[in-house]
Structures are given as structure tokens and as C-alpha cells.
Amino acid sequence: MRLLLRGGRVVDPASGLDAPGDVLIEDGRIAALGSGIAPGGGEILDCTGLVVCPGFLDLHAHLREPGEEWKETIASGTRAAAAGGFTGVAAMPNTEPPNDSRSMTEFVIKEARERGAVPVYPIGCVSKGQKGEELAEMGDMAEAGARGFSDDGHPVASARLMRRALEYARVFDLPIIDHCEEPSLVCGGVVHEGEVSARLGLAGWPSVAEEIVVERDALLAEYTGGRVHIAHLSTAGSVERVRRAKARGVRITCEVTPHHLVLTDEAAVGYDTNVKMNPPLRSEADRRALVEALSDGTVDAIATDHAPHHQDEKAVEFARAPFGVVGLETAVSVCLDRLVRPGHVSLSRLVELFTVGPSAILRLQKGTLRPGADADVTVLDLEREVTVDAARFFSKSANSPFLGWTLRGVPVLTIVAGRIVHDAR
Amino acid sequence: MRLRSPHLLGIEPLEPDEITLILDTAEGFSEIGTREIKKVPTLRGKTVVNLFVEPSTRTRSSFELAEKRLSADALNFSPAASSLVKGETLLDTARNLEAMAPDFIVIRHGEAGAPHFLARHCRSSIVNAGDGAHEHPTQALLDAFTIRRRKGRFAGLRVSIIGDILHSRVARSNTLLLVKMGADVTLCGPPTLLPREMDCLGARLTHRMDEAVEGADVVMMLRVQLERMQGGYFPSLREYARLYGLTAARLARAAPDAIVMHPGPINRGVEIEGEVADGMASVILEQVANGVAVRMAVLYLLARGGQA
């Protein structure tokens, strides 16, 4: 089976390529990359005016299955991922029950294979039942296909457990992904602690509560030689701590979310629960530091932290609403319109943050269009405009902070292993 | 002139001319409270739901009396007997109440933003009677009414608000109002209860009580709650009283004709010495009396705005 993507602008940061060209797909793999490739009888997709990239990967999504299928399922979440330009998603383990065993990891992979639009890379729990007490069976989960470990939704609060996890996971060369939050400092906080929390009378979630744990994790990774990945990093101080740790050779990586890159705590004025997430939206100075860190290599990946909740669950008083926003179907457009278009980050760097970065963290051997690679491809239309409309989401949930935003730049075609899984051209 | 919004969600969205309008209107209504027949037909046929999800005695009675003096039909809804304890959401409760077509919902709620949430989902005029640690606009208006009667002005007036600023909706609303009206506001409390970002409200911050009281025209004390001690904000009520309690000796540092205010309920011997609370400078009971007239003015003006 052959498929030729002809005449697009090919952006493949892994091979330093950003030039017009064709991409030939054969039997689920990239067969050739260049100009004037002969179709040789296969299907031809005209990509004139479009950008052809390696398949985007999302490091951080909550697919809610099993246990909370009214919010999302593996089927609906991966369909949303495909529509958002993602050819694979890492699924966080805080389901009900949590993914802390081989059988749960196998369930997620099997469900994705049978009903999913794109592959799912399960993240297993660090601790049994995410209780923060004993290590979960990481070896079993790694064998079954887990690509990392996290108690996300919760921090790994115990420094001792974090140390053991970092040490133990070295055998599998997989990262410990930490949601950095010192619980005793957050203590009921629902928005960034600062002027906005002072004005709104909402309990503050101070940036120092994240930074203390980022620093702790960097020190523990350095001490143990383990790999730590900081999830949804949100403050200028955290950026600085990761930057310094990287400079001294610590095996530390980090991700930021589109919402932390474009919104600030000012969005909470009016108490819209669709801007309530954990960590909270931060100050403008924090936001700018995150954007700067995209280009200098401190940030390794952009991840959605897609966290669907039913509208009834969000239609309550601000402090009582669950944390989290959906992101799979808006992430790429938000980044293209608000980061690439104004020139805060180059297109090829953005592509890198969605491909090479997450692939390296999860040890996936993906994220490139080099001949021989899996034929996972994301095609972008940089000129097309979209107005974010929950009615058009494939996700079961609509809790987006970007509803009504008009964004320029849309993922229009998603190909997984040579098969078209979403086509909006 | 009319109020610009059909709701009173806080002081923050009000313009100075709207504040003046409410205070001037309240002057007119306060006379009704002195009549033998304390009732006017102004809101006859209007329905007000008093949705007090958080317990309250003073504010609820004050609203109820204001509604009755205006001849509105008042429906009281309190948490113990309500469907909220049966797990119904605030939104469902509000929708059910709305099905009975009230003109106003007066809401007191333990969570900041609850009135704003109702305003987005309901057709009635929403009046915020205190939302979490956010705002308590009618309290600030009645305090302003009291201050204006006593002092005749706001511009340049030195007002010190002392106590648990962090958790106080009264402090937020009063600061916003007084700063808008040109007063010189000082906030005072221990650093744990007066975070530095509170300066965004436009007030001066100090952690030393003597500094706050020195030369003040108005000393407003806030209630301190026992659970703050358990939350680690200060070591003991005894030490709190020693550092931030208003004593006669401390009050002597204020302007000679200074007034002492407190939104109530007071903790005698903690944030305020009994002698000061009952003393000549205290206007604490006047505040309560003025509350009815101010709330009448708010309901009247909102009703008028709604019909426009």
C-alpha cells in the first residue's frame, strides 16, 4: 500500500529538514523523502500549501477509562487526539482503578488497539493504588508496554518513595513523571497565589509549592542517576531550576501545557471553572518565562494535560469544581496561533516540542520522517482559521478555556502507520 | 441615574457615582425606620428569595427587615432545612427557586464567586450577601453610610482596617469602596493574615497595630476566628489580642474624634476590648441600624434598574 504526500512544506526537525518536498509512505513506513518522488501507483494526496510533519505525540492525557467513562473513553479520547493532530497519546494512570499493574496496562493497550483511533502509551503508577506508600510493579508494567511511571493527579509526596522510584526505574530506562506539588503548602489552593487570588478571595496555590518539589526531584535524580520528567511545569522558578539542573547534567526533562503558555491567572476573574486546573494558571511573568524556555531547550515537550470533566461536574462553585481542562483538540491550533504566528517560537521548534521531545522522553523511536520510520504524520494548514466550538469536539467533554477563540493554524490530516485516521482537508 | 448592572455582585464593579447614589438613596429610606408604621409599598408584588447557604443572623435579619419594610414578599431558604444538605447542587437549587419566578435572589455562600455563578445562570437580580473570602458589598455600603454620616466625607479620611484581612470579605469590600471614594486606607494584621499582594487593593499595608491606629479617623476591627489559630496563622488568641487587639490605650493614639467600627459578631477581649466596643467612640450598633436602610436602597435601585 502506497501513499504519496506531494508538494507540502516538509518539517522534520530530527533530520534538520524544513523544505518543500514529498513524503512517500509504503506499508506503514516512510519509504522516501525528497522532491519529485514518483507515485508509483499509490494514492496521491496533494499537500500544496500545507506543512507535513512527523506525527505529533501527547505526553500527558487523562483518558478516564476505566472508571469515569462519562467524561471520556479510550475510544473518544483517541478520536479527539486524532482530530487534534496527535498520532499517539500517553495515558495517565489515575483512572478508577488506577493503572498500577500489568493487567491494567494490558487493558489500556488492548482497548486502544481495538477501539482507539491512535495508539495509547500507558503510564503506570509509581505507587500501588497511587497511595504514595509502596512501589507499584514497574517491571511488570514496563514489560506490558508502560512508557513511564507517574502518580499524576497526585504528587509523589514522600521524598523517600521518589528516591526509590528513580533508582528502581533505571533498570527499564523509563522516566518517573512527577506532578510537582508540596501538599502542605497548597492546602486547598485553587488559583495561583498572587494579586488575583487576593482580589477574588480564593485560596492561593503558591508557586513555591511547585518549585520546592522540582528542586527536590532534580536533587534526587542527580543523586540516584534516575530519570525524572516534570509534568506541566508552570512557574518561572521551576524553569530556572530545571535549566540549572540540566546544565549540571542531571537527567531531567519537562513539559509545559498550551494553557500555561497563553493564559494567566487573570482568566479566573469571573470564576469560570473552565480555567480551573492544577497547577493553576500563573502570573504573566511566569507565562513569559515558560515561552522563553521553549526556545532555549529547557522545555522538552508541549503536553496537553487533557483532563475531561462532565459539564455538570464543572457547573458548581469555583472552589468545588474539579481541576482540569480538555486540550487535545485545541493544543496545536493554540500554539500555532499564539506562539508561532507572533514569532515567540519557530515552527520547526514547535514541531520538535510535539515530536522529537515526547518521543525521546518515552523512548518511542518515533518523531521523525526519516526513511524507515513508522509512517506517523501530522499535516498542518497554517492559514486555515477555526473557532473553538465544543459542539464539534470529539471528546466527550467540553471543559475548554478556549471556547469561542478564533485561531489560525489547524491540523488537517493525521496518519498513523500509513493509515489516515483524521482528514479535515 | 440608575445602577449599571441588574446585580450587586461586589463593590469592585461599582463606579463612585453608583456608590453615592446608593448612599443618598439610603438616607431617604433611613427615615422610614423612625416612623410609627415602618413600611412603604415600594416593592409590593416583588418576590425576594433569601438563599443563605452559610449561616448568618445579622445580615439575614437585616435583609429580611429591609424586604418587609419595602412590602416585598420574602422567602427564606436556610441550609439546615434545604435540599443542599441532600446533595442538590447550587445550580439545581437556584433553578428550582427560579421556577417560582422571584425578582431577587439574595445569596450568602461560603465559596467565593457563588453569586457570580448564579448571575450567569439565573434571570433574577442577584445580590451578594457575602461570598467566601471575596466580597460583602452591602456591609461595605452600610459601613460607608455610617462613616459618611459621622465624618461627612471620604476624601482624605484615614481609615485603618485591622485583623484577619486574608480571609475577610468585609475588608476586601470596604477597602475597594473606600479607595474608590478617595479615603486613605491602611490594612493591618500579622503577615500570615495580610499577604503582601493585598496591596493590589490600593491600601497601605502594615503589620504594626500602633502604626495603623496612629492618627486614624476610623478604626475598623475584624473578627478573628479560632480556626485560624488551628491553621497555624498565629500562635494563640492571647498573643493575637496582645498584638492586634483594640484597647483603650491603643485607641488613644487615633484622632481625637475617631470612630470604632466592627462588622460583628465581636469577640470581646480578643480583637476588641469590651470597654472600647461599648465606649463613646463605638458605632457598632449604628452600623447594624444603618444596614436596613442601605439594603432597602440596594433592593429599590436594582428593582428600578431591572424595569428599565
Q: What distinguishing features does this structure have?
A:
heterodimer, A: 425 residues, alpha/beta, eight-stranded mixed sheet, 14 helices, globular, B: alpha/beta, five-stranded parallel sheet
Report on the structure:
Chain A has 425 residues and is of the alpha/beta class. The two termini of chain A are 21 Å apart. Chain A contains 14 helices and 18 strands. The model of chain A has no long low-confidence stretch (mean pLDDT 97). In chain B, α5 packs across α12. The radius of gyration of chain B is 19 Å and the shape is globular. The chains are: A alpha/beta (425), B alpha/beta (308). Chains A and B meet through α6 of A and α4 of B.
Blueprint of the fold:
The complex is a heterodimer of chains A (425) and B (308).
Chain A: E1 2-12, E2 17-26, E3 29-34, E4 43-46, E5 51-54, E6 56-61, H1 74-83, E7 86-91, H2 102-115, E8 120-122, H3 138-144, E9 149-150, H4 159-169, E10 176-178, H5 183-186, E11 191-192, H6 195-200, E12 204-205, H7 207-224, E13 228-230, H8 236-247, E14 252-256, H9 258-262, H10 284-295, E15 301-302, H11 311-314, H12 331-340, H13 347-354, H14 356-362, E16 377-387, E17 406-416, E18 419-423
Parallel strand pairs in A: 1-4, 1-5, 6-7, 7-8, 9-10, 10-13, 11-12, 13-14, 14-15
Antiparallel strand pairs in A: 1-2, 2-3, 5-16, 16-17, 17-18
Helix pairs in contact in A: 2-3, 4-7, 7-8
Chain B: H1 16-30, E1 47-52, H2 58-69, E2 73-77, H3 90-98, E3 104-109, H4 114-121, E4 125-131, H5 137-151, E5 158-162, H6 169-180, E6 184-188, E7 204-206, H7 209-213, E8 218-221, H8 226-230, H9 237-244, H10 248-251, E9 259-261, H11 274-277, H12 284-306
Helix pairs in contact in B: 1-5, 1-12, 2-12, 5-6, 5-12
